[in-house]
Predict the structure.
Amino acid sequence: MDKLIEKIIEKQNPTVAGFDPKLAYVPEFIKAECFSKYGNTFEGAAAALFEFNKRLIDALCDIVPAVKPQAAYYEMYGWQGVKALYHTIDYAKSKGMYVITDGKRGDIGATMEAYAAAHLGTTEVEGAKLEAFGADALTVNGYLGTDCIRPLLGICKEKNKDIFVLAKTSNPSSGELQDKKIGDKTVYEVMGEMCEGWGAETIGRHGYSAVGAVVGATYPEMLRELREKLPHTFFLVPGYGAQGGGAEDAKFAFDKNGLGAIVNSSRGIMCAWTKQDGKTEQNFAEAAREEAIRMKEDLQSVLSNQ
Amino acid sequence: MDKLIEKIIEKQNPTVAGFDPKLAYVPEFIKAECFSKYGNTFEGAAAALFEFNKRLIDALCDIVPAVKPQAAYYEMYGWQGVKALYHTIDYAKSKGMYVITDGKRGDIGATMEAYAAAHLGTTEVEGAKLEAFGADALTVNGYLGTDCIRPLLGICKEKNKDIFVLAKTSNPSSGELQDKKIGDKTVYEVMGEMCEGWGAETIGRHGYSAVGAVVGATYPEMLRELREKLPHTFFLVPGYGAQGGGAEDAKFAFDKNGLGAIVNSSRGIMCAWTKQDGKTEQNFAEAAREEAIRMKEDLQSVLSNQ
């Protein structure tokens, strides 16, 4: 996790910008240009998504260390949308950002090797090793157990990549399974402990392994509990902003050095212009930057008081 | 689930052919043609995958009711591979087959709506409703609870689609979480009961709901237990053949009418020519058909003895 942690330290900002670009979030002037060029098609939609993302990346890349494109919002625009995901990842990396593909993938051994190659590694084609998507990290669903994680660990070690395994998700019904008790531990705690185990051989300079966990800001008590119990597990924290979590909630994800977590904001940043006085959609990138600065300061204020 | 069940009855065959086309499984003569046309690129690989799948579909479509492409094996060839997934689904449907996209997707509400639109529904682009992938069913990971399932139920009802939620997977480490006890029930049992609940309003003519479950043939006792406890939940059964399960194991997935489940074979069918005397890769499609007939007879023999 060193690569991510060092970008966070450099920018003094533990924020990841979630890129979940529903077409409805994309400003009309971008859509108009793309649809006039490609028609009302997935090609047009994909071009609009990429243009939107590109301008956001340009506005954010010197202050925000990481982006997290959510695969679902690209898949819904067909393979053309998935092509826009590829270009988004590629562009963000070219601007020095750390990229987390939020795919929540999880499957058995041989199939997980394919996902690992797809999202973090390379695929061999007639001797050539080609990068399919080439993110720095992937979110993973560990319901299938170690078989699902092992293929990823090899690539994490070899290529300096990371994964984030779902432990306690930010949504209202996450407790239906995750909060249930297995003996005296909850399911999310069991999953968290498995993350510590899976990561044990990949602990880096800053004390965190390549196996992180997803823990929602909407459950601050559970964040606090897991931060104590999982000292080598870096947290990806969704739920800040639109989902209701604030900096006071997210602060429990951090260690005493103010590290150990990165907090996601998606709609809060992408749609910032709709919440700021005097802004129009023409100012969406500038508004996103202002919101990212506000969020950075919001997080810094609670961290410096810890 | 009626559409699938009626195709199974019509073909008298509860088999789904898994399309997990590693490039290594694709015959050399297909690859040579595609790589000479497109170079050693993802375009070439994707063309080879689609040509392989197309010939398999032609050889199987009159005897096998369904195909299950595994998304990972397409994603590993980039957006070009994902385009081949789209064409595979489209071609299989044009030949009357029921298509299950094996993506094991799972996310929170708004994002799950995007996955539901992507894989089962339609996406609106400037008023036009376009199909991104358009499968008949999607495999789903329910770790996030009802928030993850609800967006799918609407599309299942409206468009006569189905989902299969992971309950007890076929892999060796599936028990690490799934077999753990929550009170007096296992995690997979809790997940199975949630499937019954989620499906309650979508029970069709044959007594099964739109919410099926994935239960591996490699755990026959658990198959038997779940078949009894989940009378309205149709099972997708992986693990037959290459993973070690046989018809004697898979039979516990079926109800007293010989319905209630569909058994998957991937490598067993795709790579059948490597196991049959006198076959070369030139005969891969013919060998796949012979293996599908053998598997059908294998399953029928245990079902007629129940």
